[in-house]
């Protein structure tokens, strides 16, 4: 029997710190309840999506009556700022700032095509069959296992792929690069800010 994991509420201090650790020009996906009598405390309702600037989200947090920000019931990735306004957690998590990556010029830099702050650095060694991921002060080398049925799959022991050449092509392809960033950040053990 599997148990549904519920979202951990986020304190005002945690949320402010997470949003303040994003670039000035970061944009966050939000949802506004459309009908006046509806609110998200009762669950997901008819809403209109739009992007908020960092300054707008900080203003909404400051004006909010919540001291602990809950998620919409049943939608753990939708963090309520008010009963009628939510922000998508991943838009905050994927815009977090990191210190400059050490020896960045020795790596290939990949950014998500829709969010330049969601990025990773990697370096492949075809001879040793390894890949090194780096971001900020973090760095991790992982063995690569070729000729598997996977295009790419990160396990605890290795990164499985068809072959290193295709793996690199996929990582550099703008269509697939968000997955490359996700895999690299997972390998580095980067946890969500909220």
List keywords for this structure.
single chain, 194 residues, alpha+beta, five-stranded antiparallel β-sheet, 5 helices, 13 strands
Question: Would you give an account of this structure?
Answer:
The protein is elongated and about 60 Å long. A hairpin with a 4-residue loop joins β9 and β10. The chain has a six-stranded mixed beta sheet, covered by helices on one side. Helix content is 23%, strand content 36%. It has helices spanning 12-20, 54-63, 89-93, 164-172, 177-188, and strands spanning 10-11, 27-33, 47-53, 68-69, 71-72, 75-82, 85-88, 108-112, 115-125, 130-135, 138-145, 152-154, 158-161. It contains five helices and 13 strands. By secondary structure, the chain is an alpha+beta fold.
The major pleated sheet works out as: 6 strands, mixed
- Gyration radius (Cα, Å) is 19 Å
What's the count of strands?
A: 13
Measure the end-to-end span: 28 Å
Q: What proportion of the residues form beta strands (DSSP E)?
A: 35-45%
Uncertain segments of ≥5 residues (pLDDT<50)? Answer: none
Please give the count of helices: 5
SSE arrangement, N to C: EHEEHEEEEHEEEEEEHH
Which term fits the overall shape? elongated
Instruction: Work out the helicity level.
Output: 10-25%
Structural class: alpha+beta
Mean pLDDT: 93
